[in-house]
Structures are given as C-alpha cells and as structure tokens.
Amino acid sequence: MIWPRSALLMTALALVSLVACDVERRKSDAELGLNPQQSRGRKIYDNYCDRCHRPYSTKGKKGPGLKGMFAHQYLPQTGLPANDERVSDIIMHGRPDMPGYSQVLSAQDLQDLLAYLHTL
Fold first, then answer.
1. What would the pLDDT profile of 55-85 be if each residue is shown by its tens digit?
2. 114 within 8 A of 88, measured Cβ to Cβ
3. Can you list the domains of the chain with their CATH numbers?
C-alpha cells in the first residue's frame, strides 16, 4: 500500500508546483523604479484595489487585471477612453460591480494612485 501514498504525494506536489507557477515574487518599489509619488500610489493600490485587480497581469481577480491599461486608447471592460479623467471617474464613483472611493481618497491620493497605475 506504499504506492498509493507515494502517488498521492507526487500528485499533490505536482499541483502545488503548478499553482506556484502563477505566483511571482513581489518586487520592491526600488526594483520597479518607482518614484515617491508612485510608491505612495502603490500603497493606496494595495489597500483598496489589489483585492479585486491584479497589477502586473491582464488576468483579473474579481475585477479586470490592470497591466498596461494606459497603453491602449480604450479601457477593455468599458470601452471608455484610457485616460486620467475616465479612470479617475471610475475610481471615485465606481462601476456596477465596483465601489466608489470618493469618500475615502483625497485628491492627492487619487493623483498618487494614477501615477502608480501609469507604471503598470
């Protein structure tokens, strides 16, 4: 009966290694080349956005991934222009499945967050 246990163990290890392939070590602000404003924006992102959006992937969690969102003319989910004005509006007022943060973020917080989002 040793074979079934070892087969089970090998299967479990294979699954863990496959799951781990999608996990990437978090880079520091310095490794990413973030300036102080972008670093502050990253902290805001971590506190409010990361639970639903992946920063360095186009795969989302609950919401869409945000990698390269300013690299395109339009936002993929909404078709709205990919610019600071539209993204600010989404952040502050939310969407049907996303809360708005106008009561939480200051104008400076929003500018810091946008500065970080531009690095993705």
1. 888 786 888 889 999 999 998 888 889 999 9
2. yes
3. 27-117 (1.10.760.10)
Q: What is the pLDDT of residue 25?
A: 78
**CA 50, CA 42: separation in Å to the nearest integer?**
10
The pTM of the full predicted model, rounded to 2 decimals, is: 0.77
The pLDDT, as a whole number, for residue 13 is 54
